[in-house]
Amino acid sequence: MNQKELREIRRRFQPERSGITHIYGCYVNSNREIISEIDESLGLLSKEEGEKYLSLLKKALSGALGKNLLDISFATKQVMDSEEHRLLSALRKSELQDTELRQSFYRCIIDSLDMDESNYVILLAFDAYDVPHYGKDGNLEDSGEVYKYLLCSICPVKSGKLELGYVPEEKRFHSNLQGQIVAAPALGFLFPTFDERSTNLYNALLYTRSTEDDHQSFIDAVFRTQVPMPAKRQREAFGQVLETSLEQAGSFQVLQSVHEQLSERIALHRESKDPEPLLLSVDELGEILEKSGGDEKAVARFRKNCEEEFGPDAQLAPANLSDARRMSIESSEIKISLDPKLSYLIETREIDGRKYILLPADGGVELNGVPVSL
Q: What is the CA radius of gyration of the chain?
């Protein structure tokens, strides 16, 4: 799915646009026991409650593609005949109305999920979207495509805080413990995906709030497949690949140029408003290192190390490899952070036998917020 398709589905989660009639789910305690089940008709809920349910579901479609939202691909043999795909397809076909199927699915999640001894809520919803289509004349036509999908949102439940509350009858303030609060989802998924504005039974879209945890045990149970390395681990691995490929401490100028080029590609992609996520192959990353001044042997080592770390056919998001918003330079004594667009201002120089990192100070300098004269 691309950003445009994702936004189209996200817009469904508004009371006036949603085709969701029921919210299903269960409340699970830290002992992996189901405390209670949820079977709510949106039509019978207050407007405020209905909007809160839809909001919690919608948040499982938030974040960046390739970072918080990860593609899950099923092998052809899984789609044709596998327990995991059969369960997801049966839930979708039954529109979540089959109690036994829901119970099996809850158990699959509960037995595999580690929520750090936290209580949590599993929310499920089914929607059928009559996909609109615009003809060449700009008029709305019947596309004949109905995208039927289910969305799962797994939300931690946190204890409320002790606060002062006013009791009108007594005209006094009393300590008031707020109840259990359902937090934003930590995990969720969409099945099947909406690719090229059509149903794709070969893919699901996984949501994870944390860019560090891959939730592999959950994925093994629900999808039985591998997902890309989490974004934070990708950045760490990319740094290690650069370090080992350059064999010794990399040239400041070479590494500076690599991150400048990655930041530039991110900025150009953002300006182009291309809905497809920006991805680079191992060969393209090798070209960036070569243009940055890496020698032939270093580039060859880099390509080999990248293939070993990420896979020969890896497609990596530059935003997961380099922070396009801040460039950080650290030594044992100092840390400098600046916009990557200004990295050209940094110089390295040796003066009287000592090595320095230099920054121009023509525009004025402040010390703890107070202007100083140099």
A: 26
